[in-house]
Specification:
This protein is an alpha/beta fold. It is built from 15 helices and ten strands. Bound molecules: adenosine monophosphate, FE2/S2 (inorganic) cluster and zinc ion. Zinc ion binds next to α12.
Length: 340
């Protein structure tokens, strides 16, 4: 097989484009897709202070690599979730990358900062492990960006992630979540702008990029993933993709092009400051503070018993969870959603 751009021997085939590339041309095309997403959705300005949420996986490390190469002022943010060996190795590769690239890495440890880790949250709280994990990430990303004076938070969600989330939301006709599934969430009332520059690139492509660039990344899945609904939707999308290459991209990119405007209502929930931590929320206390209080068995306000901070208002949690976690997971029972 020959490279589509330069006719040299190809090293990677991209079936949905019906094309193959040599190493240099693949890296060029990959960067071009990231630049295109940034331009099309006005994700980043050249003088923005950018905070890249880096998990130690292929997607976020590949993205940080591209953004540094493109000349953005991009610092990394690693959140220690306390998931045993898995978190230890994730921190190690992220630090290694930052060292090699002479880049700045901000680190937050959930347990040291907030008194609980994700395995404990799964055991003690009433929410599924993945739901608390998603909620914690969203909360800490925003807070770290505000505290550090960053203009924008960047995450490594790829096309597979976005297509699976859209499929899950569509199967349940979660119209408000569907409307919010944009690659750019603008800043408003204490919420920092959030962008997803990899949304045009598949998981296979980000893995190939990381491999060809020699990036050391954590290959293993999170050990708490069993029962994660999003994985089942990914499998379903992959089954369709294997016989009809391009379906995933048509589904998600077609949604952005033609579907999203149909779901946008222009209605926005009003945001106020959480009475405990001051971060933006739709209720008296933010979903993170309520989850934390429940996990630690603390009261949020006089007169509240620990049980009063259970997810009495699932709607608020749904509003405050980003699209990283399917809203369906909020309602999952712990047994079905396999918290340890
Ligand atoms: P996930 O929710 O694990 O699919 O990750 C989605 C995105 O969230 C990743 O591409 C990263 O940008 C970010 N992310 C996930 N886990 C972490 C972490 N522990 N620290 C920093 N960023 C993370
Ligand atoms: Fe790790 Fe859900 S907590 S995948
Ligand atoms: Zn709060």
């Amino acid at each position: 097989m020959k490279c589509r751009r330069c006719k040299a021997p190809a090293v990677i085939e991209v079936r949905r484009h019906n094309a193959a590339y040599c190493k240099g041309c693949f890296l060029h095309v990959f960067r071009g897709q990231v630049e295109r997403a940034i331009r099309q959705w006005r994700m980043l300005d050249t003088d923005d202070r950018v905070l890249v949420a880096v998990s130690g996986g292929k997607d976020s490390l590949a993205l940080w690599d591209v953004l540094l190469d493109l000349g953005y002022r991009a610092d990394g943010l690693y959140l220690g979730l306390g998931i045993g060996e898995y978190s230890g190795r994730s921190a190690e590769v992220t630090r290694g990358f930052a060292r090699d690239r002479d880049a700045r890495l901000v680190e937050v440890d959930l347990s040291a900062e907030y008194g609980f880790d994700i395995p404990t949250a799964g055991r003690r709280g009433s929410r599924s492990t993945c739901a608390v994990c998603g909620l914690s990430k969203r909360y800490v990303f925003n807070k770290a960006a505000l505290d550090g004076g960053y203009d924008v938070v960047v995450t490594g969600h790829n096309l597979d992630d976005e297509a699976a989330t859209l499929l899950g939301n569509t199967l349940r006709w979660q119209t408000e979540s569907i409307a919010r599934q944009s690659p750019v969430l603008p800043s408003r009332d204490g919420l920092v702008k959030k962008v997803k520059p990899l949304h045009r690139l598949s998981e296979l492509e980000t893995a190939a990029y990381a491999f060809l660039r020699g990036i050391d990344y954590v290959v293993e899945e999170c050990p708490l993933v069993a029962g994660n609904t999003q994985l089942r939707y990914k499998d379903a999308m992959n089954a369709i993709e294997s016989t009809s290459p391009g379906t995933k991209a048509q589904f998600f990119l077609g949604y952005l092009d033609r579907g999203m405007p149909l779901f946008t209502t222009g209605r926005e929930v009003e945001l106020v400051a959480c009475e405990r931590c001051g971060q933006s929320t739709t209720g008296r206390f933010c979903a993170f503070c309520r989850a934390q209080a429940q996990i630690l068995g603390r009261q949020l306000a006089t007169g509240d018993g620990p049980n009063d901070v259970a997810p009495s208002d699932d709607r608020q949690v749904a509003d405050e969870l980003s699209d990283e976690v399917l809203p369906a997971e909020i309602y999952a029972t712990r047994g079905a959603d396999a918290g340890p």
